[in-house]
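name: query_chain
kind: protein
chains: 1
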Amino acid sequence: MAFGDRRYAQCHAVLDWDHRLPSDAAVLRLYLSYTDREAGAIESALKSRDREIDSGNLYPEFDVPDYADVDASESYVAVLRPGNHEVGDLRFFSDWRKGVHQSVAREAVAAVRASPSYERSMRERSHDNLGPPVVIGWTPPCLAQSKHWAIEVWLLVDFDGHVGRAHVFMVDSKSHLVTREYFTEVQIG
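structure:
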């Protein structure tokens, strides 16, 4: 589902290897464009990357470029493991992702604060000075397990200055319900 009232013009899919020897995963990259002009730019960028890879492919075991960092309205990266039919580690990227209006952000944080698991995480925090919940940005329904685009909110529960852990909440932007939550590692640098 495209964000807001937008529609997809085109999707470019690239199946790549993980650039490890021995390889233990394939990487699926989806580049979705909202306009024909952007679709053309993505196609040009991918062809340019193909030429760059071809020219440096003399010894593919040494630092061959991949298809990362191609600009698109929405980009998705999924890790596919051999012998497993499930998509793992799906990640979403977009330049506009962080553009959440203040009123929408406030509603999402209020929904998180009303969650019983938020209260548990607040009680279990390692320090009192870890700050309030932080709005990370928009998240697509496929990642939030919601009917609509969601707001991703993180609550830091432990941090030693370098590494820590955050409780991640996904809040449906229409129903204002927490549709998914999990814990993730946080690292600086």
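note: The two ends are 33 Å apart (CA to CA).
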